[in-house]
Task: structure prediction
Amino acid sequence: AVVSTQSGHYGRGLNIAITELESKDHFRCTWLNKHREETVLSLYVAKNVTISELLDEAKKQIELSPDGSGKLRLLEVYSYRIHRVFSNTVSYHNIQPSMAQQTTCYRVEEIPVEETQLGPKDFLIPVAHFHQTIFQCFNHPFLFKVTEEESLQSVRTRMLERFKDISEKEFEKYKFSLITHGRMTPLNDDFTFNSSDFITNVDKDTKPINEAHLDVFLHSRPWLGLEHALKPPKRSRYTYVEKPVKIHNQ
Result:
């Protein structure tokens, strides 16, 4: 028999013995491609796998950019902000408790090439979109690489290059703010990025700044806010890409 839970687009069927299926977890996550279009994936993984092995399963259902890094990461997104970034060695069962929260989702994305080799003065900061109030975030939050003492203008220029579907004129309207403990500080043109503004001393003591984004609760850390008009995120033609499961009784 062929079992599926969603109608729509299907790829090749997954051949899984019923005894094997019973021992696997059904993990639903979102694939966000380089065009910021999202698709929901259904993965069947053993309960004892690592994040690295889970991402290997995701690769079977997605199409990577030919000019991309070919490397994936798993993020936990909560209320349109990045909550956690999981390192590949983390066990899959460690990410399950927060799945009960309805506003939490898990996102798979390809790591940008420029983020695959972070220097000792590079670090990733969480960025989120908001409109009028920082408590009304929307669209896809993301990580962005900055370097110690990098200027705001430099970051703006590089960020515009990532937003290929946004015109320079439109991007000029974006207002940048540093959000710390619920307080918004608008950034002036002379602002420079320093790890001390985004990473706590405790985290700096336990790992280098270019790894400080991994396996911590970024939701409680300072973040970079982009204030601009509401614009709905892109969605792919098919909301779900779930492969039918062929069950063989044994």
